[in-house]
Amino acid sequence: VCFLTLDPNTANTSLSLCEENRKVTWMHGKQPYPDHPDRFDYCEQVLCRESVCGRCYWEIEWSGEYVYISVSYKSISRKGLAKE
């Protein structure tokens, strides 16, 4: 079992992290995160601190009408509207 931890330095300011950076919630207002070169400034995304490789799966708990889940790579563009 591997527990993934969200990286607050990458979190877009519309996302709030809690529960020891294991839970993310979209917020109407901006979060008071400090500027950081790794932060997503346009796309509402956050990366994990840990990398995964090989065959993996994860379980998600969510509530509400929508949820967006993605798999990314560490070098993804974090500034502006990326086409990745």
UniProtKB/TrEMBL annotation:
GO terms for cellular component: cytoplasm. This is B30.2/SPRY domain-containing protein. Pfam families: PRY. The lineage of its organism: Eukaryota, Metazoa, Chordata, Craniata, Vertebrata. It comes from the Eukaryota. GO terms for molecular function: zinc ion binding. PANTHER family: B-BOX DOMAIN CONTAINING (PTHR25465), E3 UBIQUITIN_ISG15 LIGASE TRIM25-RELATED (PTHR25465:SF5). PROSITE patterns: B302_SPRY (PS50188).
